[in-house]
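Hi R.,

As promised on Friday, here is the backbone we talked about, encoded as C-alpha cells. Could you run it through your design pipeline when you get a chance and send me back a sequence?
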C-alpha cells in the first residue's frame, strides 16, 4: 500500500465526494472474523474535480459480492443559487476600499446604534460585491498584467537602452506583483492555511487546498430518519428539519437540585477591534455599548449561520456532520466582553476536577491523573475499582435555557450579568450553510453555539451542577466508597468539557481526551495512530506544490507540532520518534517519496540551532523531554493543579521529588518522569523567598548545588534533622547550627550564607539557560539548554538574513556545506560513470569549479560584480565565503543587495548546470545574469520604502517606482 499511495501522490489524484458504505471490500469470514477495507475507490485529478465539481459517488451494500458496487452520479444541471456575501480580506489592498466604506458610512440613518450599524453594513454589501466582481477576478487580472508585461519586455529586448520603456516596464511589473499578492492573500484566506508564513509564492498550493476543501465538504446526498437517501433540495430539507427539530424545540426541565446545594459567589471584568476602524469604530462601539445598556440584542446580530463539517470520512446521516456556528463580529465582540468579565473568577466556582477553559488548569492534568489511577487495571487482583469513560451526546446543543438562567442566579451572578447572558443566548436564530448557500431560518429554543466564545465557559457551569449532584449523592449514600487513591481529595470524576471519566471494567489501552490511557507501558502499537496522522499530512499530492522553503515551514509549524500533545503527557518510544523524523526527512528532501529521498544533510545535524549552520528544527526526543520537564516544574514549584495535588498526596507524601525512589508498582508514566529527572536536576534552581516550599537538602537553591550531593540521609538524621526539612525550618535565629563533623567534612559550610527570609514572598523556581543564567521556566528554553550545541558559524548572516529569497538561500546553504550533488561527490557512488562539467566539458565539476573556477561562472560573477560594484578577493570557495562574511556584516541596503546577489548567483548557476545536464537546455551568460538581476529587483520591489535605508536613489537605479507596495520587515 505504501507504493500505491506514492503512485497516487505522483499522479495527483484524490477521492471524490462520496456517500454510502465507507468500507468497500469485505473479505468473507472463515470463522467469526472477517476483514473490511476501503479498497475500491472513485478518484479524480485536479482537472476532473474542476470540470465536474458536483460529481459524487455512492457505494452500495455488497450483497453477494466481496466488493461494494459504485455508482458515479453527474448532476445534469446545477440549480442557480445566490451565494451570500462573504468579506474577502484582499479587498483591503485595493485603493477603492476605504473610500467606499467612508461613503456608505456617511449615510444618515435614524434609530438605535445597533440598528444603524446593521443598516450601514447591509448598504456596504452591494458596492463591495460590485468591487469584488470588477477587481476580484484574480486569474483574469493576472493574465492581463502578465500579457502586458511580456509585451513591454519584448519591446525592451529590442530597444534595451530606452529609459522610457524601462519606466513603463516597472509600472507593469508593479501591477503584476500587486495582482499576484492579492490572489495569494485571497486563496490563503479561503484555504485557511495559517502556518505558511515564509516561502516563495504558494498560490498553486493554496489553489489545490481550496479545491480539496470544497470537494470534501460538499453535501449532495443525505440519509433521512427512515434511512432513505435524499438528493438535491430534498437533502437540504432533511438537514434543515433535523436542526430546526433539534435546536428549535424547547423541553420543560424541572429544577433537579435545590438552591442550598450551590455556592453563592459573585463575579465582575472587558474588550474590541476591527478593520477600517477609523471610519466604523464609533458606530461599532455604540452598538456594543447599547447592548449592555438596553440588555437587548438585534435579531440581525444574533442570527447565526451553521456550517457543517464532516466528523467521519464517509458521512451519511446529518449526525455525521459537526455543526459549527459562524457568528458575526459584533456578536463575538459582545461575547468576548462578557467572557473577559467572568473567566478569571470561574476558578472560584468550578471544582478542581474540571480542567477545561479555566485559567491555570490543563487538559494534561486529567490525562496524567487518569494514567495513575488506572495503573494495574489489567491485573485481576487488588482493590475493587472501576472507571467509566462517558461522552455526553450533543451536550452543548441540548442545554435548557431555563436551567441555565436558574444556575446563573444560584451561583451568585449579578442580575445584570444574568440578563446580558440570557438575552445573548436565548434570542438566537439559525440558517444552515450547505454548499455555499443558506437554507432554512428558524428560532433557537435551547443549546449553546459551538464557535461562540462564551459557550465553553457557560458549559463549565452546567457541568459543575453535575459535580454537585454527585457530591450530594455521596453525602446521602452511606455505602459509597471512593476510588483507590481518591479519598484525600474526594475525587469522584474528571471532566473536560463534555468528556467524563467516572471512577466498570474495560479493555486497555483506550483513548481519553485524544491520548492513549494505559495501565501498563506504552507500546509501539499504541502510537501507530500518531505516525499515521503525520503520514496523512505528508502523503498529500497538494504538498508537491510547495518549494523547499514551504516544506520546511510545514515541518517546522505543523508536522513537528503533531506529536506535542502526546509528548506532553508521556515519553514516546524512540522507535516512534525515529519513524516520525524519517517521514519528515523524506518529505523535506523529496516531498514524501520514501524511495527517492536521499538526505543531503543528516537529520541530527539539521536539528541543531541555525547559528550552528543548520536549519534549527526540533529533535523529537529532546523536545519530548523538554515538554515533560514542565510536569517536573509544576511539581517542584507547587502548582495549584489537581494532578500536582494528587501527586503530593499519594506519590510524594511530603518528600522531595528529587528524593523519591523507584518502586515495583509505580505507573509507567511516573517511572519515566523519575528517569528523566537526572538529566534536568541541575538546571532547576530555587530563589529563596520565605523558605517554606524549598527542601533544604534536595532542592538546588545554593550555588554549589543540592546538599544531598555531599550529605547522606543517615548523616542528616544523625544530626537531628529530617530529610523533609524546608529551608526555613533549619534556620535558627537567622543562622545555621551545623554539627562540627559536617564543617570538617565540608569546609564551605563555615562560610555558607544564610538566606534572608521574606515572609510574604514565595520561593521561586527558575531554569538555568545555556549560559547558566537563571530565567523563568519556558519549554523552549529547556529545549535549547539540553540540546547538543556546536560552535556558531561565521556565515550565518550570509544565509539566514531577514527578507531573504528562501529558495535561493536554501541552495546557498547546501553549497556552503558542500552537500549539493556535484560530480566529484557522485563519483564516490558511481566510479564507473564518465562525468564532465556542463559548462566547459573539460573535467568533472565540484563546488569550487561550477561556482567560481570554471570560465562560465567567472564571467557571470564578473558581470554581477560589475553591476553591483562588489569587490572581493579571488580565491577558492571557502576563502571567498570567509571574506564575504566579514565585509557584509553591517545591516544596510547595500549589503542586503550583495547578500541577495550571492544567493541568487549560486542558485542560478546551479539551476543552469542542472538544465544543461538533465534538460538539454543551454542559456547564455547574459540570460543567467539577467535572471539574477531581475530576482534581486523583484525582491527590492517587495520591501517597504526605507527598509535598511532603501531610498529614491536606489529605487531609481533599479527602475523601481517610488509608489511602492507595502512589504513586511519580518523574517
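Update: got your reply. Pasting your designed sequence below so it's all in one thread:
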Amino acid at each position: 500500500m505504501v507504493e500505491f499511495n506514492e503512485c497516487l501522490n505522483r499522479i495527483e489524484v484524490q477521492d471524490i465526494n462520496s456517500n454510502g458504505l465507507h468500507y468497500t471490500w469485505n473479505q468473507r469470514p472463515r470463522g467469526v472474523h472477517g476483514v473490511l477495507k476501503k479498497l475500491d475507490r472513485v478518484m479524480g485529478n485536479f482537472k476532473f474535480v474542476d470540470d465536474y465539481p458536483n460529481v459524487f459517488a455512492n457505494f452500495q451494500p455488497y450483497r453477494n459480492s466481496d466488493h461494494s458496487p459504485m455508482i458515479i452520479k453527474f448532476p445534469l444541471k446545477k440549480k442557480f443559487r445566490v451565494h451570500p456575501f462573504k468579506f474577502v480580506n484582499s479587498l483591503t489592498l485595493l485603493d477603492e476600499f476605504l473610500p467606499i466604506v467612508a461613503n456608505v458610512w456617511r449615510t444618515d440613518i435614524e434609530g438605535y446604534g445597533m440598528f444603524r450599524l446593521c443598516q450601514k453594513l447591509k448598504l456596504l454589501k452591494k458596492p463591495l460585491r460590485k468591487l469584488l466582481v470588477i477587481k476580484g477576478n484574480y486569474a483574469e487580472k493576472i493574465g492581463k498584467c502578465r500579457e502586458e508585461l511580456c509585451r513591454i519586455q519584448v519591446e525592451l529586448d529590442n530597444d534595451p537602452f530606452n529609459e522610457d520603456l524601462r519606466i513603463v516596464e516597472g509600472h507593469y511589473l508593479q501591477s503584476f506583483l500587486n495582482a499576484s499578492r492579492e490572489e495569494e492573500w485571497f486563496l490563503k484566506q479561503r484555504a485557511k492555511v495559517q502556518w505558511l508564513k515564509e516561502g516563495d509564492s504558494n498560490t498553486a498550493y493554496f489553489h489545490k487546498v481550496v479545491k480539496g476543501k470544497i470537494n470534501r465538504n460538499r453535501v449532495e446526498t443525505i440519509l433521512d430518519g427512515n434511512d432513505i437517501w435524499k438528493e438535491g433540495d430534498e437533502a437540504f430539507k432533511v438537514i434543515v428539519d433535523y436542526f430546526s427539530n433539534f435546536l428549535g424545540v424547547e423541553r420543560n426541565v424541572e429544577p433537579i437540585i435545590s438552591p442550598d446545594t450551590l455556592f453563592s459567589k459573585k463575579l465582575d471584568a472587558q474588550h474590541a477591534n476591527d478593520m477600517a476602524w477609523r471610519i466604523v469604530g464609533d458606530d461599532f462601539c455604540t452598538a456594543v455599548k447599547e447592548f449592555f445598556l438596553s440588555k437587548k440584542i438585534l435579531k440581525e446580530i444574533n442570527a447565526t449561520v451553521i456550517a457543517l463539517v464532516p466528523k467521519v470520512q464517509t458521512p451519511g446521516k446529518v449526525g455525521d456532520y459537526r455543526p459549527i456556528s459562524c457568528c458575526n463580529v459584533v456578536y463575538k465582540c459582545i461575547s468576548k466582553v462578557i467572557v473577559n468579565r467572568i473567566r478569571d473568577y470561574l476558578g472560584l466556582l468550578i471544582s478542581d476536577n474540571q480542567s477545561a477553559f479555566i485559567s491555570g488548569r490543563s487538559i494534561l492534568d486529567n490525562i496524567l491523573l487518569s494514567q495513575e489511577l488506572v495503573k494495574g487495571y489489567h491485573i485481576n487482583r487488588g482493590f475493587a475499582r472501576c472507571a467509566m469513560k462517558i461522552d455526553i451526546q450533543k451536550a452543548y446543543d441540548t442545554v435548557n435555557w431555563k436551567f441555565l438562567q436558574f444556575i446563573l442566579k444560584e451561583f451568585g451572578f449579578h442580575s445584570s450579568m444574568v440578563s446580558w447572558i440570557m438575552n445573548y443566548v436565548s434570542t438566537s436564530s439559525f440558517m444552515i450553510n450547505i454548499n455555499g448557500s443558506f437554507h432554512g431560518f428558524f428560532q433557537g429554543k435551547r443549546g449553546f453555539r459551538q464557535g461562540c466564545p462564551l459557550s465553553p465557559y457557560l458549559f463549565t457551569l452546567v457541568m459543575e451542577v453535575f459535580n454537585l449532584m454527585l457530591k450530594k449523592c455521596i453525602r446521602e449514600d452511606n455505602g459509597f466508597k471512593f476510588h483507590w487513591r481518591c479519598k484525600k481529595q474526594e475525587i469522584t470524576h474528571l471532566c473536560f468539557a463534555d468528556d467524563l471519566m467516572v471512577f466498570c471494567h474495560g479493555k486497555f489501552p483506550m483513548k481519553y481526551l485524544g491520548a492513549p490511557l494505559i495501565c501498563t507501558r506504552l507500546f509501539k502499537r499504541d502510537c501507530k495512530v500518531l505516525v499515521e496522522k503525520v503520514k496523512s499530512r505528508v502523503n498529500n499530492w497538494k504538498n508537491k506544490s510547495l518549494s523547499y522553503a514551504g516544506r520546511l515551514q510545514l515541518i517546522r509549524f505543523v508536522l513537528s507540532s503533531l506529536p506535542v500533545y502526546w509528548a506532553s503527557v508521556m515519553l514516546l518510544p524512540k522507535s516512534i520518534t525515529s519513524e516520525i523524523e524519517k517521514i519528515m526527512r523524506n518529505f523535506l528532501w523529496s516531498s514524501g517519496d520514501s524511495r527517492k529521498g536521499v538526505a543531503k544533510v543528516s537529520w541530527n545535524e539539521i536539528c541543531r540551532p541555525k547559528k550552528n549552520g543548520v536549519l534549527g528544527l526540533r529533535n523529537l526526543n529532546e523536545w519530548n523531554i523538554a515538554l515533560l520537564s514542565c510536569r517536573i516544574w509544576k511539581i517542584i514549584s507547587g502548582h495549584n493543579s489537581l494532578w500536582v495535588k494528587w501527586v503530593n498526596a499519594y506519590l510524594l507524601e511530603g518528600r522531595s521529588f528529587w528524593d523519591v525512589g523507584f518502586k515495583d508498582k509505580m505507573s509507567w508514566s511516573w517511572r519515566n518522569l523519575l528517569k528523566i529527572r537526572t538529566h534536568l536536576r541541575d538546571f532547576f534552581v530555587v530563589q529563596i523567598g520565605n523558605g517554606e516550599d524549598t527542601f533544604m537538602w534536595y532542592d538546588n537553591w545554593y550555588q554549589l548545588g543540592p546538599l544531598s550531593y555531599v550529605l547522606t540521609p543517615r548523616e542528616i538524621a544523625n544530626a537531628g534533622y529530617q530529610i523533609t526539612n524546608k529551608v526555613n525550618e533549619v534556620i535558627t535565629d537567622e543562622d545555621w547550627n551545623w554539627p562540627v563533623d559536617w564543617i570538617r567534612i565540608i569546609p564551605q559550610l563555615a562560610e555558607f550564607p544564610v538566606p534572608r527570609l521574606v515572609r510574604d514572598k514565595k520561593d521561586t523556581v527558575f531554569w538555568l539557560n545555556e549560559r547558566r543564567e537563571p530565567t523563568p521556566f519556558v519549554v523552549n528554553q529547556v529545549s535549547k539548554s539540553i540540546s547538543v550545541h556546536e560552535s556558531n558559524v561565521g556565515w550565518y548572516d550570509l544565509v539566514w538574513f531577514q527578507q531573504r529569497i528562501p529558495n535561493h538561500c536554501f541552495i546557498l546553504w547546501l553549497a556552503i556545506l558542500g552537500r549539493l550533488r556535484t560530480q566529484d561527490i557522485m563519483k564516490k557512488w558511481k566510479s564507473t560513470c564518465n562525468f564532465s562539467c556542463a559548462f566547459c566539458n573539460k573535467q568533472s565539476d565540484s563546488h569550487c569549479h561550477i561556482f567560481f573556477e570554471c570560465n562560465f561562472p567567472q564571467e557571470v560573477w564578473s558581470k554581477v560584480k560589475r553591476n553591483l560594484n562588489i569587490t572581493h578577493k579571488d580565491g577558492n570557495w571557502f576563502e571567498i565565503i570567509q571574506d564575504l562574511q566579514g565585509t557584509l556584516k553591517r545591516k544596510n541596503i547595500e549589503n542586503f543587495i550583495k547578500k541577495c546577489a550571492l544567493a541568487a548567483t549560486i542558485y542560478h548557476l546551479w539551476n543552469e548546470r542542472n538544465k544543461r545536464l538533465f534538460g538539454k537546455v543551454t542559456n547564455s551568460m547574459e540570460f543567467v545574469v539577467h535572471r539574477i538581476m531581475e530576482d534581486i529587483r523583484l525582491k527590492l520591489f517587495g520591501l517597504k520604502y526605507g527598509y535598511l535605508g532603501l531610498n529614491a536613489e536606489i529605487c531609481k537605479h533599479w527602475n523601481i517606482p517610488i509608489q511602492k507596495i507595502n512589504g513586511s520587515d519580518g523574517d
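One thing I noticed while checking it: The longest strand covers residues 303-310.

Thanks again,
M.
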